[in-house]
Amino acid sequence: MHKKVLFCATVDIHFRAFHLPYMKWFKEQGWEVHVAASGDIELPFVDKKYDIPIQRSPFNKLNLKAYKELKKIIDHNQYKIIHCHTPMGGVLTRLAARKARNAVTKVIYTAHGFHFCKGAPIINWALYYPIEKFLSHYTDCLITINQEDYHRALRHRFKARLIKHIHGVGVNTDIFYPVGPFHKSVLRAEQGYKPEDFLMFYAAEFNKNKNQQFLIKALALIKDKVPQIKLLLAGDGPLLEDCKKLTMNLGIEEKVHFLGFRNDIEALLKMSDIAVASSFREGLPVNVMEAMACGLPVIATINRGHSELIQDGKNGYILSHKNSQLFALRLLEMYQSKELCGKMGLVGQSKMKNYSLSGVSSEVIEVYSEYMMEEVNEPEGKHNRAYI
């Protein structure tokens, strides 16, 4: 009988974006791979897929149905390992796996950025902190992807048996890498841009957290000083139309290009001059890591994820989301000095060696391998193991 592993998340797109290499690895080890999430996309390396109505909002009544379905699936299948992701995916799965965990199942939870963090609203601390603290009792391994979350879990004595820090979800440096001037000009021509254009790039969902309005307002401050400037915004979302209206109100609709959902992010990065990021909250942003791997300097707002990746004045600039004038000044500095852009880009690219997909995969597989052993001798409930 094959041993089974279950991957859980709120939506199935999460698996396709980040976890296919691990599903493939489990198949190569002879394991049966199951996934549970909301959605109906097809996934390779998966033996059984459950469409579970997990909702992002903790107050949605469908989550009760999702919990019951998850519990039935977990109790029936006797999984050796369950790895859950995303806030609600992690909450419902760990609750549903309490009985199974007392038998043979090991539960791993990856926190892709705690909602309670430095600068987060009080409501986030009031709601999410006690939930995560409570659920740590039902977690064999808590994986964090930034240092702030890792040290907070230790300081606040989260009761997971193992608390571990890994370097995010990894960036594929076989796809994301710098290109020379000729290749850059070819990519620009294919997308309708000129060699002399100064291209800033940001890929993110249009929502309140990603804060694209900040970038639009900053660009408006220097539109006359940098006539060739273009802000390329890839993505969709609920605030897309609001951002389009803002560009029209500021008279910069020709300078802000809304690209929609794209599957060619690597090409868009390689043809750009710099990357920008304006979010209020990040765990460890993939968009910034991909930009750095492509040799781009990054100008970003302060949050724990950006601060972990960007050293101010070294591989970019990091500043307050309340200071659009300083942000605009940094954009102007980058435009005026290709030498500065190149120097910072090299520093960022070098930093990505620690965040490569191959390196991160080794870190995650090390965790899996520990729980793939037939017998675990450590007493249940014991804590005090923490690794970076």
TrEMBL record:
InterPro entries: Glyco_trans_1, Glyco_trans_4-like_N, Glycosyltransferase_grp1. Residues 4-146 form the Glycosyltransferase subfamily 4-like N-terminal domain. It comes from the Bacteria. CDD domains: GT4_CapM-like (cd03808). Residues 188-345 form the Glycosyl transferase family domain. Transmembrane segments: none annotated. It holds the Pfam family Glycos_transf_1. One of its GO terms (molecular function) is glycosyltransferase activity. Keywords: Transferase. The keyword Transferase applies. The keyword Transferase applies. PANTHER family: SULFOQUINOVOSYL TRANSFERASE SQD2. This is Group 1 glycosyl transferase. It comes from Neobacillus vireti LMG 21834.
